[in-house]
Amino acid sequence: MKTDTEPISETASTIVAPATGRTGRPALVTTREPESVRRRGPGLAMKFFGAAALLVVLTLGTAIAIAAWRANQVAEKSIREALSKVPAVLAVSQRDIETQLKSTVHSIADEPGTKELLARVGVDGPEAMAGTIHEWTSTKAVLLKAKAVFLFDRTGALLARSDKGVGEDQGRPFGSVRWVADPIQSWNDASATIREGKIISTVASSAVVSGDRAGNEGHFDGVLAAAIPFDDARARVLRGLMGGQVGILANTARRGEAPHPELSAGTDGLQGPALVQALFASGPALDTLFVNGKEIGPIDATIEGDRRLIAAVPIKSAAGETLGAFVVSRSRDEETAAFREIRTTLLAIGLASLLLAIPISLLLGRRIARPLEQLAAGAVAIRDGQLDVPLPEGGSDEVGALARAFRAMVGELKEKAQLEEMVAEMQRRPGDVTRRTSTGSVSPDPTHVPGQGPVLGQLFSNRYEVLSTLGKGGMGAVYRALDRELDEEVALKVLTPEAFEEGTLAVQTLKQEIRLARKITHPNVVRTHDLGESEGTRFLTMEYVPGTTLREVVDRKGSLALAPGLQIAKQLCRGLAAVHEAGIIHRDIKPHNIMVLPNGVVKLMDFGIARVADSDEVVTPGGQTVGTPYYMSPEQARGENLDVRSDLYSVGVVLYEIFTGVRPIEGKTSLDVMRGHVTVEPQRPTLLRPD
């Protein structure tokens, strides 16, 4: 530990203060591509348009193809599922019709007028009442919207029916017909399906009883019945339930003959003989339906060129005879009609989109290409050494990110250019000797004393031609020398003979420095080459950097402008990051150990007191604090174990000094300064320099 009375020193184990060597930027060598070999072809805007148009076509075509396949698949499934429900839907519909018709007929049978009419027929006789009965049934048929209204006597003989003339078929016996026999025998309502010619109807009947029907004390007078046909109107109702075209076929063949279906009624899509022809074309479908009395379908059939799916359910009488069939047909074209309209609309929209894509894609392509062209032009200008180039504004997309990266790169180059100009303005250090161009021998200097280091202009260690003195310190000196074997300039660091006195750690320090420095290869860190000895003089060779120390820059310039200062700060931090990644703590970050080259490159050097991180290795005598007081971290000043944060603190001190021109901690002695790092809060740099 240094004492209070020691003067403040900015040196640690070694002071290295190289002077500015040969200055000037390296010439830019540019190779321009001949106009004849430059790219020829569509620009980015046209490529963007072509890609957009192709994408529209492919997307639209693929979407329509997939949609068509899926629409057909869904339509087929939907049709088959709907047709599979036809029998159940028809059964429910027929049951509802029969129930409603029986209820209506029952209510008319219970009317007093109906009972009084039959009572008068019993007194006056059917012939005398024929006109009256026929008029009454005709009136009820209109009321019920029925095909026919029937009135029977107590034996089941027909008294009148509304669809025949007065007295026609009067007396015809119906007592054996089930829908007439059931009301006669049990006074219960009945219903059935009947066919007359090719007209199929639902018929409901009810007993006409005078007196108390419920108490079995009534008087049975006759039977009232009404028939509702399966006509076009009823077919349209069923179409609403089925979601498809409906046809009603009547089997007009006589018993024992082959089926002979005729269209009885149907919706608009199943009018004419086409439906019957389609069923005949399906082979065994007719026998299955009319002979065996079983359901068919869904089956494929073509009706007037329209591919359809058909399902049919037999219509049976009360005795189980097949009278006809309900046929439900659904068209694939009808099911996919909405999709075809959508497809046509999509095609129209696609064509319109393609037409609109032409100018829009060109405009977008040009808008995207313009900043890229500006960036390309900027890159060419930067290649030619012109940094004041217009660059596009950065957006939030990839082009914006590229523009921001370009802008940051140009900013870095401008900062570096200003740093180069600043270094170039500094005068060359006097005392340098011109590098010898002759390959002849160098005569020993008569003033040279063996064991006391090299002499300017002479050959040291039979290899190094000493060109100038770069700096001196308490432990030795650093020279610029020409390595005659490799024909390149190096920095020659030599320890003075006094540094090898008993108890010193000079040799250990040198070995430590070269061992640690060799671990690092980075553009912002000085490379160390080798360790040697000549005539009792210890030395090491390292990369020669023809620049000046940051100490000299600050001493001559004071506070630095922001641009060159930021460039120094960035490169210093990059170099120190490489040092830390190698697992090394520098422990002596200060302006003296930071070189600024004429080309704007900043290099960190001097690893004399560095050590491996997480190591207890000590390269100084026990209890001695190493480093430079002005730039020590508080823990370094206290002699504690250090990590990379100590170097970061020292970097902060250096940056404070180069931007403000003063150190953050001052003191009369080394101990005062070290105490200040522990206890004093430095003045905020913005107070010293608001910008």
Overview of the molecule:
The protein has 691 residues and is of the alpha+beta class. 41% of the residues lie in helices and 19% in strands. The chain has a six-stranded antiparallel sheet with strand order 11-12-13-14-16-15, covered by helices on one side. β1 (148-152) and β2 form a beta hairpin. α11 crosses α14 (562-581). It is rod-shaped.
Summarize the structure.
The protein has helices at 44-84, 86-109, 112-124, 130-144, 178-186, 232-242, 274-281, 285-291, 332-335, 337-383, 398-425, 506-517, 550-557, 562-581, 634-637, 644-660, 670-679, 685-688, and strands at 148-152, 158-161, 190-196, 199-210, 219-229, 245-251, 261-266, 296-303, 306-316, 322-331, 459-460, 464-472, 476-483, 488-495, 528-534, 537-543, 548-549, 584-585, 594-596, 602-604, 611-612.
